[in-house]
């Protein structure tokens, strides 16, 4: 029944009245907004009063700003099977929970986390539950998440669970009910941070007025708890990711950035002498703690899935030796089994001495003959799932099989399957999700939601995040809520009874220890920063070629066909365009700028910048990601400008401005540590190579005034040249400025000086006093170009410099990006690197 405004508020503002007048809770479900008496709950009324005071136009403006923040900051997720990431779907409204309500939920989550920790300790230890008949062995042995190599292992730090999540909703009576446990590699905590940051910035006054509890202290406690599991006082903590194609890679990068962890893939890690190390530019450095986001089956190809390229050979042995702490321990995912879930209410009194505080949805393991008979008798009222997964083996393609939806032959086939292998199935109660208000077409409507609550192990016990990860379905009849099924995510506001201290996430994680260098840079991160720098310079060079071509297309007073043809041939050779024969010069400029099918077009290179940046997302600021996105958008617009040469030129110039802003921002804000060295090394090497190619094309033996002027334009040195020299352009003087001039930031000589300075600052693997291969090449090249005479520089000599610089790039990659085990020193067992 719709809410009657006059029944509860006579003087309410028009916007609130319009929102609430047609709001009708779904029958038989608990609704967060409307109480059993049909009236809005007080805390929601306070929220909507404050929200309506902003006015409809201001609200739309703020919602649009929130959408831009999501896009600009690169908050994304990927649906399984899709190659492209989607923007994060943030709900316009938070889920509001009072502190008294939250207190009971948090206590229940703490109890459940304690229960599951004791359960795992028993299952992988003495196995008394099985020996005493409280838990059938068949309910465990069939689970792919039971990791046999971990049996008998004592986890370093003493815990199987360090980070736990539980999915809950409310029953029709308003009590919280557990839907499932998450311990394999729980996701959502990073998105909870993003939801909070975006919504708090969208409604800062409202956020303060509602007295929302902060989530920062929870992550501080978690980080301290992880560090306490290590053997060293200042441990190296890594977040182990499946990689950039993971569905939640954006979240993983954000967590690593906020918590100060190294974001690593399996290829970044190696086990030597039973210890886990990360490959860095300074060799292999010992890893103390791993927070894994990879399923246990993929963690160690030597002992589990041999096809895995995500894990680390020998990792399980390092765990058994107590050489590394892993959160959560491989094998903890066993608690996600629906078979295990069905036994937890009965196990709680045995393991805890008390009943579960949080009831859970009814579930019955079909390996029990009595339970199986009962399930078959009331199949229409139940759903059938796999005992160790959501899918019923042989039936559901995705999710549970609903008994009432089966025809007679389907029921017969299911009954036969349950009789033959009941241990593979679980019968589960079908319940409705509780609902929360959501904006639908400008009006409020109830929508089902699932709340994921997080708990972290600390030395003082379990810490529960005051908030969580809420998924809201866009389908009012949805029986399962996932981010891949049209759901959105809502921030969760726990409304404190007392004034909440103003603090930010960063401030809450701060301590008094001074750190100026964030450890040694992983080789993979160095590799991607290096290539990000190269792609930035490559995009700029392509755009400069296009701009030079545009200038000569609009100049009616000079015959520059020779220069135009060379510009076009360079774009073809670089892959910026696919062919020249049937395209006008104007069409070529558009294609070189914005053709996504041409691997060397400016737009394609911008995509490569974004791809490289995404892999090191934990090391770059949201502003850098925003500028990368804007560069792509600027280049995409160029495809619509085929009929307007002046507009094309302007668009290319704006794209160059965007690149300059990106390079300038990184130059002024990137900390001058190893990451900066590799980013700038990439730029310097690519600029030197590109400049050599420009010189070979436009300053060869056939060069004329127009071609030399084009060369000076391409390296942005026309004004400098004219300020130094009077009269016509000289080939020798131009080559000196382009190739040798140590004071010209665009010359090859200047790049080599910068490259040598960067290499001198990087760590060395050996302390024998001899320069390593990249430094030797850089020193030789720098010396050659410093003593070179411009009068002796011809196209062949320029080519020799270009090839030597390319060899330098290869030597740098061989040294820092691919390491041989024998050349990589390890930390001493008691040392700190």
Automatic annotation (TrEMBL):
Residues 94-473 form the Circularly permuted ATP-grasp type domain. Residues 521-817 form the DUF403 domain. Pfam families: Alpha-E (PF04168), CP_ATPgrasp_2 (PF14403). This is Uncharacterized protein. InterPro entries: ATP-dep_Glu-Cys_Ligase-2, CP_ATPgrasp_2, DUF403.
């Amino acid at each position: 029944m719709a809410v009657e405004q006059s029944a509860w508020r006579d003087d309410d503002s028009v916007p609130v009245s319009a929102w609430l007048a047609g709001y009708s809770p779904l029958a038989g479900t608990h609704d967060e907004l409307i109480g059993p008496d049909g009236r809005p709950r007080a805390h929601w009324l306070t929220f909507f009063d404050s929200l309506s005071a902003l006015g409809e136009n201001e609200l739309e403006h703020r919602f649009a700003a929130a959408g831009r923040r999501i896009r600009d900051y690169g908050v994304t997720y990927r649906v399984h099977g899709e190659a492209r990431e989607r923007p994060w779907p943030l709900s316009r409204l938070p889920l509001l929970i009072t502190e008294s309500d939250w207190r009971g939920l948090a206590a229940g989550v703490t109890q459940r986390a304690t229960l599951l920790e004791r359960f795992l300790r028993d299952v992988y230890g003495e196995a008394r539950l099985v020996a005493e008949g409280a838990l059938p062995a068949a309910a465990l042995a069939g689970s792919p998440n039971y990791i046999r190599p971990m049996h008998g292992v004592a986890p370093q730090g003493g815990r199987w669970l360090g980070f736990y999540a539980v999915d809950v909703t409310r029953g029709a009576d308003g009590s919280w009910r557990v839907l499932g446990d998450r311990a394999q590699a729980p996701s959502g905590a990073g998105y909870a941070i993003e939801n909070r940051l975006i919504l708090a910035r969208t409604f800062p006054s409202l956020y303060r007025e509602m007295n929302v509890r902060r989530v920062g202290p929870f992550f501080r406690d978690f980080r301290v708890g992880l560090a306490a599991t290590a053997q060293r006082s200042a441990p190296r903590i890594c977040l182990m990711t499946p990689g950039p194609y993971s569905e939640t890679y954006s979240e993983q990068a954000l967590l690593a950035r906020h918590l100060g962890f190294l974001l690593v893939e399996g290829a970044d890690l190696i086990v030597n002498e039973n210890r886990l190390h990360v490959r860095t530019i300074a060799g292999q450095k010992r890893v103390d703690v791993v927070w894994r986001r990879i399923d246990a089956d993929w963690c160690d190809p030597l002992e589990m899935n041999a096809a895995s390229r995500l894990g680390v050979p020998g990792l399980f042995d390092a765990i058994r030796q107590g050489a590394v702490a892993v959160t959560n321990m491989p094998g903890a995912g066993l608690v996600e089994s629906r078979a295990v879930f069905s036994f937890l209410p009965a196990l709680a009194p045995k393991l805890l001495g008390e009943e579960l505080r949080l009831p859970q949805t009814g579930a019955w393991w079909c390996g029990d003959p009595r339970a199986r008979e009962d399930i078959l008798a009331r199949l229409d009222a139940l759903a059938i799932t796999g005992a160790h997964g959501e899918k019923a083996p042989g039936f559901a393609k995705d999710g549970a099989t609903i008994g009432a939806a089966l025809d007679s032959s389907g029921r017969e086939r299911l009954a036969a399957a349950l009789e033959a292998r009941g241990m593979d199935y679980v019968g589960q109660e079908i319940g409705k999700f509780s609902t929360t208000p959501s904006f639908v077409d400008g009006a409020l409507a109830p929508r089902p939601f699932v709340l994921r609550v997080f708990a972290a192990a600390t030395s003082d016990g379990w810490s529960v995040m005051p908030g969580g990860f809420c998924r809201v379905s866009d389908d009012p009849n949805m029986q399962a809520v996932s981010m891949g099924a049209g759901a959105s995510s809502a921030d969760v506001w726990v409304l404190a009874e007392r004034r909440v201290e103003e603090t930010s996430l960063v401030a809450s994680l701060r301590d008094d220890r001074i750190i100026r260098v964030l450890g040694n840079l992983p080789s993979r991160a160095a590799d991607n920063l290096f290539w990000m720098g190269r792609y930035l310079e490559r995009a700029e060079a392509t755009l400069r070629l296009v701009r030079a071509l545009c200038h000569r297309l609009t100049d009616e007073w000079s015959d520059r066909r020779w220069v135009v043809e060379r510009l076009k041939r360079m774009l073809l050779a670089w892959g910026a365009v696919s062919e020249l024969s049937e395209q006008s010069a104007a069409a070529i400029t558009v294609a070189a700028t914005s053709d996504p099918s041409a691997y060397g077009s400016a737009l394609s290179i911008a995509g490569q910048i974004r791809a490289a940046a995404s892999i090191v997302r934990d090391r770059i600021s949201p502003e850098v990601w925003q500028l990368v996105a804007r560069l792509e958008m600027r280049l995409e617009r160029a495809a619509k400008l085929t009929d307007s040469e002046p507009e094309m030129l302007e668009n290319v110039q704006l794209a160059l401005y965007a690149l300059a802003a990106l390079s300038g921002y990184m130059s002024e804000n990137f900390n001058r540590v190893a990451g900066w060295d590799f980013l700038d090394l990439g730029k310097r090497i690519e600029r030197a190579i590109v400049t050599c190619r420009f010189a070979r094309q436009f300053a060869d033996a056939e060069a004329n005034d127009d071609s030399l002027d084009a060369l000076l334009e391409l390296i942005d040195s026309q004004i400098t040249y004219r300020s130094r020299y009077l009269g016509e352009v000289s080939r020798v003087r131009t080559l000196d400025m382009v190739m040798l001039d140590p004071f010209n930031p665009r010359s090859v000589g200047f790049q080599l000086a910068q490259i040598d300075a960067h290499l001198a600052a990087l760590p060395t693997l050996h302390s024998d006093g001899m320069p390593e291969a990249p430094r030797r090449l850089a020193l030789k090249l720098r010396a050659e170009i410093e003593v070179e005479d411009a009068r002796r520089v011809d196209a062949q000599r320029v080519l020799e410099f270009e090839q030597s610089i390319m060899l330098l790039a290869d030597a740098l990659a061989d040294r820092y990006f691919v390491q041989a085990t024998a050349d990589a020193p390890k930390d001493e067992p008691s040392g700190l690197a």
